[in-house]
Design brief:
Low-confidence stretches: 1-15
Number of helices: 28
Helix content: 40-55%
Radius of gyration: 50 Å
Mean pLDDT: 86
Largest sheet: 9 strands, mixed
Length: 807
């Protein structure tokens, strides 16, 4: 067996490596475009999603990604992330204000609520409320008591019974004391606090702010430097990052000492409920821990936990010593709940909230129903109870991925507690960034190589990769991963669009070649429209005006010239005639030797096509007269042409075989146009048109002369033919308008006598016509006919129709 003529990679039997490399090299510019697109996407990804301070344009991209994340939340099925039933919300709603009184109502209701929750078995109660001022509902009685004490000091007599009654009344309505005792009885209670930024401190004196800071100092979290030798510097760096993130606060607002008793921080605790929204105002992250202090020495500052962190600590039954924050030179490393749980937030203590569902995903109970015991026993048994407000005017309404601004803040905290307990925060970290990086690379370079190799019609497949990209990102989201969609999608679409655009522009060069080639046969406007709408060339029946032009005596001319001279002679003539056809928006059908076939009204329909054909025919005759002078000076034969025009319905379109097709017109109207061109030899004219063309163009400033009523060979129905003489404006310009009018009138008068069989009278008029215009061919033809009919008259049934016996 003979060895193949080359390695396997060079064989042409299949699309081997050699052919693959050759094809890739031809389209290497497409690959370079993909490579640049990929590098640009990776750069944008880094600065928009990994950099510390994105510019406004990158913030815009972040918002696009936020929108894509929000869309995933909205279309996630409810059963994919069921809410933990051990979390219940006691709501200060509109009903509670109707039952318990206008907000802020007496804290005795909170005291009663805690006692009832304790009796029902609730495990932890957390308040998304700060009780920073004493209860005001008993203030009037306190004022009376102070006045009573003042009178006693002044020696005024006081009724002992009245004093005892008032003292008892004040004691019974001391809401803060009752609430404080209820907290002590319940045990694991988290009171809410919040931090203030510097611009929010207007009107608050430093002494008050220092007092607030002292009140929460008891509830700080143990901080542990992972590298003790650099611990102080690491803490300073972490505080700097909080400041850069915009989550470094200047002051706090704490609960009154009667409620937040630092003597027993193992049971009663304080947690902040500040949550900082993203740039678009939507809450997607939660702040779990933050550094705070009033000292100028930052190393004296403490770390404090959020409402959720403290609630989970109490729910797990951990002492304060087992709740700690580890940090290093990067920032927060972990939040540790002893050996039971460990959370790894980002370097500023944030975690992405994995919302369990839209508003109402957790069980809500009105505080009015709790205080009045209108609930099923065991409703709160072993559960974490969050107390917050949703009533209009007092509710903490937030914007979440589910849209609107009606999501209660207390339910946001419920979601965070749920995420902590089940370790189901939405994960967005280094591993996810790596997947994003790989997705950008895959949708950039390999896709670019593929698009550089395939034919342009397969480019849509690249865009279709958006579907699996959406599926992968959504599937990862269902499993708790947040993969970036915006930049990979932009990489994909940018890759496809730019490469497609480039290849389209390159292919446009080929189109220009085609356009130039077809420009030799079709008008530029026709070519343009065909490129826009190829359906224009589909076969159809339509009304057009067909032109046939032919050189008279071409055989004699060809005998006088050699082959080279004849080719140059004919090329010049056909080029000039074709330019005139195109100038008048006609379509060149074909060349038949020295004959030219063209038509108007297709491939696109337009009014006035008969007039355009007439104007083109007149300009062709004028150009031939100009060429005659040139050829005569060059010693070449004199050239005359005849033109036939006919308007009618034909079949026009792309026709032919599977091997070769052309755009042409067929039908009786085409055949008749060819017959009309041949009649010019018989009548000594240059342009003859059918009656249909005459009727279509007669009112457009064109002068016709009726020539004859005749029956062409192969047709039974006679047709009226006309000589196209010229344009009225041309006759007016050269002063021949009156002469032409006289010619038309005299010729018509003579033909009328001819049709009435008055041969001798007609002969005299035609003779008079020839005396004035001796070169008029039609008059000479009729003179000869009159002589023949005088010698031998036609039959009695003669209808004036002249029968054409040749093609």
């Amino acid at each position: 067996m003979a060895a193949p003529s080359g390695g396997w990679w060079q064989r042409r039997g299949g699309f081997g490596l050699y052919e693959l490399l050759q094809s890739w090299w031809r389209h290497r510019v497409s690959f370079i475009i993909s490579l640049v697109t990929t590098l640009a996407a990776l750069t944008i990804y880094y600065f928009a999603f990994l950099g510390e301070r994105p510019t406004p344009i990158f913030v815009f991209l972040q918002r696009l990604e936020f929108d894509s994340l929000d869309t995933r939340f909205r279309y996630r099925p409810a059963n994919a992330t069921p809410a933990d039933p051990c979390i219940v919300i006691v709501d200060i709603d509109q009903q509670s204000q109707e039952v318990l009184g206008k907000w802020p109502f007496s804290r005795t209701h909170f005291a009663k609520m805690l006692d009832i929750l304790r009796e029902d078995g609730a495990k932890v109660v957390a308040f998304e409320i700060t009780f920073d001022k004493p209860d005001q509902t008993v203030e009037l009685m306190r004022k009376i008591w102070r006045e009573l004490e003042a009178r006693k000091k002044n020696g005024e007599p006081i009724d002992p019974k009245y004093e005892t009654w008032l003292q008892q009344l004040v004691a019974e309505n001391n809401a803060d004391a009752q609430f404080g005792k209820a907290i002590d009885r319940f045990g694991p209670v988290v009171l809410g606090s919040f931090f203030l930024k510097k611009e929010e401190l207007t009107g608050i004196d430093d002494a008050t702010l220092d007092q607030y800071a002292d009140l929460i100092d008891w509830y700080s979290i143990t901080r542990t430097a992972m590298n003790p030798t650099t611990g102080k510097q690491d803490f300073l760096e972490m505080v700097r990052k909080y400041d850069q993130e915009g989550t470094l606060f200047a002051a706090t607002v704490a609960n009154i000492p009667a409620l937040a008793n630092p003597d027993n921080p193992e049971k009663t605790s304080i947690g902040f409920f500040n949550i900082v929204p993203d740039q678009d105002g939507v809450l997607r992250r939660t702040l779990l821990v933050l550094p705070f202090g009033r000292s100028k020495d930052i190393n004296d500052w403490q770390i404090f936990g959020s409402l959720e962190i403290q609630a989970v600590r109490l729910y797990l039954g951990l002492p304060t010593t087992q709740l700690s924050v580890n940090f290093n030179q990067i920032g927060v490393a972990s939040v540790n709940f002893g050996d039971k749980q460990k959370i790894e937030p980002d370097y500023t203590g944030h975690m992405q909230i994995n919302y369990r569902g839209p508003r109402g995903s957790y069980t809500y109970k009105s505080i009015a129903d709790v205080v009045t015991r209108k609930f099923e026993p065991g409703t709160f048994k072993g559960k974490i109870v969050l107390v917050g407000a949703s009533a209009t005017g007092i509710g903490d309404q937030r914007s979440t991925p589910y849209g609107g601004i009606d999501y209660p803040g207390v339910e946001v905290h419920a979601n965070v507690i749920d995420n902590i307990l089940h370790q189901q925060f939405l994960v967005r970290g280094a591993q996810q960034a790596l997947w994003d990086f790989l997705a950008i690379l895959f949708l950039g370079i390999p896709l670019g190589i593929w698009m550089a190799l395939v034919q342009p019609r397969w480019m849509w497949f690249g865009a279709a990769l958006l579907i699996p990209l959406v599926a992968v990102d959504y599937g990862a989201f269902l499993r708790g991963w947040w993969l970036n969609f915006t930049i990979p999608a932009m990489t994909l679409t940018g890759n496809v669009l730019l490469v497609s655009l480039y290849r389209a522009l390159v292919e446009e060069k080929e189109k220009r070649k085609v356009r130039a080639e077809f420009g030799n046969y079709l008008s530029p406007e026709v070519v343009r429209r065909l490129l826009v709408d190829p359906r224009l060339v589909d076969p159809k029946k339509t009304d057009i005006t067909v032109m046939f032009s032919d050189i008279r005596g071409f055989t004699t001319i060809s005998e006088k010239l050699d082959a080279q001279e004849l080719a140059l002679f004919l090329n010049q003539y056909l080029s000039d005639m074709t330019r005139i056809v195109f100038h008048h928006h006609g379509t060149l059908d074909k060349y038949i030797g020295d004959a030219v076939m063209a038509f108007w009204g297709a491939p696109f329909e337009e009014p006035g096509h008969a007039t355009k054909a007439c104007n083109a025919a007149l300009e062709m005759i004028q150009r031939v007269r100009e060429l005659q002078k040139q050829w005569e000076a060059e010693g070449k034969p004199k050239l005359e042409i005849g033109i036939g025009l006919n308007t009618g319905v034909v079949s026009v379109g792309r026709m032919g075989s599977s091997l070769r097709r052309g755009y042409t017109a067929i039908g009786d109207a085409v055949n008749l146009s060819s017959r009309l061109e041949g009649l010019n030899k018989d009548y000594g004219t240059h342009i003859i048109v059918n009656e249909t063309t005459y009727q279509a163009a007669r009112n457009d400033g064109i002068v016709f002369r009726e020539l004859d009523l005749m029956r062409v060979k192969g047709k039974l129905q006679p047709v009226t033919i006309y000589q196209l003489m010229g344009r009225q404006m041309d006759f007016a310009a050269d002063g021949s308008a009156e002469t032409v009018r006289s010619q038309v009138e005299m010729f018509a008068r003579a033909r009328e006598l001819y049709r009435n069989r008055q041969w001798k009278a007609a002969q005299l008029v035609f003779q008079e016509f020839l005396d004035k215009w001796p070169k008029d061919g039609p008059a000479r033809v009729y003179m000869e006919r009159c002589q023949e009919y005088i010698a031998a008259a036609p039959p009695a049934n003669w209808d004036g129709v002249f029968v054409m016996t040749h093609k």
